[in-house]
Amino acid sequence: MFSEEPIERVCARAKRMGFDGIDIWCPFGRCRHLDDVLERLGPEGLGRVLSANGLALSNITVYKVGFSRYAELLGGMGGGLVVRESQYGRVAPGEVRGRIGALFESLKPDIALAEKHGCRLAIENHSGAILNSPDSFRAFMEMNPSPGRVGIALAPYHLQKGGFSVEEVIAVCGSQIWFVYAWQHAEGAGQLPGGGPADFRPWLKALGDSGYSGFLSPFTHGEMGADAMETAVTKACGYLDGCMGVGG
Fold it and tell me: What is the pTM of this model?
């Protein structure tokens, strides 16, 4: 979101919308924010931009590009959370545990980098990927060899798309959920909280019951103009506040 704007302007918008932190993405569509930070600002420069806007770095997102390119950047900021994909491909019911085991084997280099640079890895569930069904989350929880370094970035959109219960998955994952997209399965701006048919209150209650205290990120795919995006996201934040009883 806000992919056409430099990171300084994105942070200014985030401050205006009342955000506590931002998620900075690697190249994805037209977005180049994380590479711009890496090449132009570095850890100290990004730290100054965030501080000037009263923001934390909630996480970086490294889909397809990978963590290794950005490990020193994040380590230079004292560490942090890294959101990445699992593995794509169809999984037969009897293959779930074997494929999750293979995922953890493939994550060993990233886990070693995370340990070196003081980071944690949050694996996002995704349609058409091995991590998306309740059974795959159960296997993930049971087989995770590094629960202090590897957890979950929860994407309700993809659970809904697969016909799975968001609340059930939250209960399965519990304290291993480290990042949450406030994101529903709908079209366009309807993906944002309050924009589509989903009632976020049961999801938020389930997160509260699990003890979740991380970031909640209003999110949508599909690029619109920055001003229109700010208006839509501000409205989504108001909806979430209402669900949580903020401001009355």
Answer: 0.96
For residues 140 and 174, give the distance between their C-alpha atoms in angstroms, rounded to a whole number: 12
Map residue 183 onto helix, strand or coil.
Answer: coil
For the stretch 93-111, pLDDT in tens is 899 999 999 999 999 999 9
- What type of residue sits at position 150? V
The amino acid sitting at 121 is: L
**φ, ψ for residue 192, nearest 5 deg:** -75, 155
To which residue do tokens 């779930």 refer? 96
What mean pLDDT comes out for the span 208-222? 95
Between helix 7-16 and helix 42-52 the angle, nearest 10°, is 30
Backbone Cα Rg of the chain: 17
Helix, strand and coil percent figures for the chain, each rounded to 5 = 50, 15, 35
Map residue 83 onto helix, strand or coil: strand
pLDDT at 248 over 60: no
- Which residue segments constitute the domains of the chain, with CATH numbers given? 7-244 (3.20.20.150)
